[in-house]
Amino acid sequence: MKLRASIFAILLLLSVGSYAQQRPQYTQYIFNNYLLNPALSGMENYTDLRFGYRKQWAGIQDAPQTSFVSANFSLGDQYLWRNALSLPEKGEDPMSKNYMQNYTSSPSHHGLGVIAVLDDVGPLSRLDASLTYAYHLQLNNALNFSVGVAAGISRIGLDRSQLSFESGEDDPAISRTIVGQVKPDLGLGVWLYGANFFAGASVQQILPQKLVFTASPTEFSTGKEVPHLFLTAGYRFFVAEDIAMTPSFMVKQVNPTPVSIDANLKVAFRDRLWLGGSYRKNDSFSAIAGVNINKTFNITYSYDFTTSQLNTVSNGSHEIVLGIQLNNVYEVVSSMKMW
Length: 339
Prior knowledge:
mainly beta; 2 helices; Porin
């Protein structure tokens, strides 16, 4: 009975924990908001392909590990910024101070994308796969507004082989354990952007889905997926011709946990090299560095210094992202619109 109570306690934690944050946490979302907001699908003048890996709370056994791949692109073969003012000469930095003074918004267009995220936390694993679509509306000569949707599936798995029991795997306490469940997933987002600023809102896991790990009707069968709400904004300004700074923030709400607030700052040098920092309230400080290797490849690394009580057992969190810009029509080392 003692062992059985322990097993049900584990299942209770898994179910009750489902009311807290269920999606992975990222430090470098400021460079890839597409992971959180489908309204960014097809915003750039190239196919934006990203591969990322995050190891959270290094030093803690079975701490979260996240891997992801994302790709998004605009529909059609026309440049999004093609008129005489908005298309620079080949090799010219399209995000330079001089160019930004002549910025014009892109014509209305459609965008598509795909995201796959694998998140492992001890015996639990989660695979989210989504297709995304966005429509970018040209509000005026300097502003665009986009609306996006992400639709896909989530598979949540429990690996019983990582759990040890005195009476072996045939213990009746886990005989009716659900080791895998597939749920539909839906997310929505909006994004407003111009030459020097962006602002957006999105929500993940809109569809209410039951999330339990035992088929037995007990008090441990009350778990469910909950919506994740994100609000973010940032502004880019130049301190010199070749140096730009972008402060930004994000507010995340996942009931019933406390609101999470991030403050970020990126400093870019000729859009070849950038450094940055981030602060997440009651959680961590982060240092970020990245480089545009050439017109196709860029790489970014971040390290989180844990400030919560986990800092006594954790060596911080690592995150690395490789970006690939396919069909880069500007043929420059960076043509990201802002970040």
